[in-house]
Amino acid sequence: MPSCNNWRFIEVGRVVLLKDSKYENKIAVVLDVLDMNRVLVDSPACGSKWTGVPRHVVTMKNLEATPVKVDTTRGAKVTTLTKAIKEQGIVAAWDSSMWAKKISIRDARTNITDFDRVRLDRARRTRAYTLRKSLAEKLTKAGKVNKAKKVFTA
């Protein structure tokens, strides 16, 4: 199981989220800290939409440290890193985080068609209507007729 903590130090084995680059919204593992502003990252393709970043140098301003950390050595080979990622369940740990879920929802909303957007809005309005109607029935049953009229006007 990957270790998680509140302090997100940039260290060997730290899982980072890449941003503002060709590999935006993909995770990679820090393999070496080169200097104060650059790190060496790699993320072998493990059959997930989050992985698939080749080994290269990234500046600190183009990455975001996550709470997930892989137990690996400095400058690990691709096979060693792939094995560690699979054994420790790093991709599953990242996939179950709220951060990853939020990114997935954001991507789904940007890639939605106009027809689906109308269907989603209609479903939201129908759900709100049903909730207001059931609340009005409960208020009427409790004897608060005036409040029920304010909540639900059909």
Word description of this protein:
The chain is of the alpha+beta class and 154 residues long. It is 42% helix and 22% strand. The chain is built from 5 helices and 6 strands; from the N terminus they run E-E-E-E-E-E-H-H-H-H-H. A 6-stranded antiparallel beta sheet has the order 1-6-2-3-4-5. Strand 2 (14-18) and strand 3 (27-33) form a beta hairpin. The radius of gyration is 23 Å and the shape is elongated. The termini are far apart.
Per-chain topology:
Elements: E1 3-4, E2 14-18, E3 27-33, E4 38-43, E5 53-59, E6 63-69, H1 78-88, H2 90-95, H3 98-110, H4 114-141, H5 145-151
What is the count of β-strands?
6
Helix content: 40-55%
* Rg value: 23 Å
Low-confidence stretches: none
Overview in brief:
Helices cover 42% and strands 22% of the residues.
Tag the structure with descriptive keywords.
22% strand; six-stranded antiparallel beta sheet; elongated; 6 strands; 154 residues; single chain; alpha+beta
